[in-house]
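Lab manual, section 2.4: Encoding a predicted structure.

Procedure: take the sequence of the chain (468 residues), apply the prediction step described in section 2.3, and record the output as C-alpha cells. A sample record is shown.
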Amino acid sequence: MLLNEEYVELKEVFAVKLKRRRSVGQQKGGTLLGITLFQCVKKGKKLKDHAIHLSNMSEDHCEVWLRHFKDILNGFRNRPKSLKVFVNPNSHRKEANQIYSEQIAPLFKLADIKTATTITEYKGHALSALKECDLKEFDGVICVGGDGFANEVAYGLLLRAQMDAGRDTDSIFTPVRAPLPLGIIPAGSTDIVAYSVQGIRHPLTAAMHIIMGHYQSVDVCTFSTHSRLLRFGFSAMFGFGGRTLALAEKHRWMPSSQRREFAVIKTLANLKPEECELTFLPLKNPKQESQKTTRSKLKRDSSNHFDNVDQWQSIQGLFLNISIMAIPCLCSMAPKGLAPDTRLDNGSMSLIAVRNTSRADFIKHLKRYGSLKNQFSFPFVETYTVQEVKLKPRSTSGWADDSSEENVKVDSKRTPMISSEKNYPWNIDGDLMEASSEVNIRVHPRLITLFGVTTEEFDDSTVKCSCI
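Recorded output:
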C-alpha cells in the first residue's frame, strides 16, 4: 500500500493485475478490491519483486486503469515478450528444475512473458536444439543450470549465428554476434558466468534482470586448433584447473560438492607441471607506462581504448596452471574474481601463468583467491593483458591420469606430465574440452549480450573460501 507522499516510477513496474478476494478453492471471479502493481526493487546486489496494492472497488475504474498500465508496460520495447528456456535437471544438486518451476516460471508468467521450455535429457541436448530450432519468434534464450551448461547454450547460440551467416568454422574466420541475448539462471556449484554479469549468485535476481530487460555486452573467446574451431567460451584453465575438472568428471557418481573437493585434493597431491610454450599478443594502454616487469598487477583500463602492440611475445617452461579469462570470473570462493582486473566488455583477456613451484607455495597462491590479498604477488606468477594466446604443450605425449598415480613418486620441480594418452584436458567455463596440440585463443569484443549489468562498481568485501 502506498502512503500519501510515496510514489513509484513506472519504469520499475513489470506487471499489473486486478486484486480480488476469493473463497477457498475459488479460481475465478471474487470481490474486486483494486489493482496490484508489481515492482522490481533493488536491495544491495539483489533484485526482488514487490507488490503495491491500490484500493478501488469500481469495476469500471479498475478496468480502465488496468488497460492504461498495460499499455505503458507494453511500451518498454527492451523487455522480452517471448523466451526459449533450457533447463538442465542434472546441474549441481539436481535443483535446476525445481528452481525454475517454483521460483522463475511464476515470475515470467506474472510478467506476461511467453516461454517454450526444454528439459534437457543428455549433454549436448541444448547445443543440438539450438542448431535446428526457429529462433525468430523469441526475444532471448534462457538457461537454468551451472557454468558448463551456460557454456553449452552460449556455444550453441554463437555457433548458430555462424551457421546462419555462412561462416566456415574450419578456417580462420571473424565470428558474428549472437542473434539473441542469453539469460543465465544460476543453479550450479559456482556459477561464475552468472555471478560475473549479475554481481551475485541469486536466481530471482537473474530472473528480474531478464524481465526488466537489463542487457550487458560481453567479450567471448574462440578456441581453435589448426584453424578449426573447437569451442566458444568466456574463460579457460590449463594444467591444474584442467586436470582437476577431468578428474571430477570421472567421479560423476559422487555428490557434486564432494566430487569437487576430492578432485582438488587429489590433484594437489599429485601436483605436476606441464611443459609448454606460450605465445601471446599483448595489449597496451597508451595512458599507462610501459610494463617493466611481467609480475606487476594487471591494470584497469577505464577508457576501453588500447594500443595494439603488433609484436608477439613468448615464454616457455614448466607451468602448474595457466588461466586465460575474458571476464572477471567472480564466485563465492573468489569474491574479487579469478581475474579481478578483467572487464566484461573491454576486448581483452587476462593471461595468468603460474610457473612451477613447491606445493606449499602453490596452495598459498590458491588461498589468496579467497582473501583480500593480491593473489598475483608471488615470484612464480606472471600476468599479462592480451588479445590472443597460443598454447603449445612441449610434450606431444599427452597428460597422465592422476587417479592412476597414487604410488608413483615424481620430482614435481623437474618432471612434466607425460603419459601415453594423446589429449590434454582444458577447463572451459567448467566444461571439459580435450585437445592434443596447440590451441589458439582469441578474444572477440562484445560478441554476445547477456541479461545483467556491469559489475565493476560492486564492492563486496565478504570473503568465503572453502576450496582448500
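Check your result against the sample. The first helix runs from residue 59 to 74.
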